Amino acid sequence: MYVLLLCSIFVITIGVERIVYFARADSGRKFAGEFYHLCAKGRLVDAKNLAIKTKGDLAFLLNISLDRINRKDFDTKIFFEAHSNISLAKFRARLYYLNIIITMAPLLGLLGTISGMISAFSIFNTQENQSSAVTGGIGEALIATATGLCVAIIALTIHSYFIQRVDHIVTDMELSFSAIEIQLQRGNKNEAS
């Protein structure tokens, strides 16, 4: 039970830390949509101003890329791929630990139940007619399984929430990066004609 208590504290700590990090580093779905529409209309200056005013990793990456977009030595695909992978790794940090706890907590609960039942049934070896002690011991042992399942459910809920947010961030990045790529292609076609 002490290990399950530590796991539950660890899950809550990771959840709070991830909430704080996402609040600081996620530029938001609204930003990505507005940025895309501004780029689609060819309003790169307005898109850059929006990126400057917005906090978060995506806005920062887009701001840097718009600063360097006209340089000949700047490859947007390599820049976006490298920096988005670094950013996504930071968003996914510590989520793996939640995945481990999701698997481990029910197993720890079962281990506690089994050890509790062994103790409860060992009463038969030492004392006769102690059925109430055995049933009480079994009931107490099952608390470990219930606790393990509760810890796993909480960890699964937190893990699923953040995985969904990471998926939205990936979509926002792809949308925003494609908007810049489209503008670059339009610019290259205009220069060629």
Shape: rod-shaped
Kindly state the mean pLDDT as a whole number? 87
Instruction: Tell me the Rg in angstroms.
Output: 27 Å
- What kind of oligomer do you see? single chain
User: What class, by secondary structure content?
Assistant: mainly alpha
Number of strands: 0
Task: Write up this protein.
- Its main location: membrane.
- Residues 81-174 form the MotA/TolQ/ExbB proton channel domain.
- It contains 8 helices and no strands.
- The protein is mostly helical.
- The protein has one domain.
- Helix 1 runs parallel beside helix 8, helix 4 packs antiparallel against helix 5 and helix 6 (95-121) runs antiparallel to helix 8 (131-192).
Please outline what is shown here.
With 193 residues, the chain is mainly α. It has helices at 2-25, 29-40, 44-53, 57-68, 76-92, 95-121, 123-126, 131-192. 87% of the residues lie in helices and 0% in strands.
Write the layout of secondary structure elements.
Blueprint: H1 2-25, H2 29-40, H3 44-53, H4 57-68, H5 76-92, H6 95-121, H7 123-126, H8 131-192
Helix pairs in contact: 1-6, 1-8, 2-3, 2-8, 3-4, 4-5, 5-8, 6-8
Brief descriptors of the model:
single chain; 193 residues; mainly alpha; 8 helices; 0% strand; rod-shaped
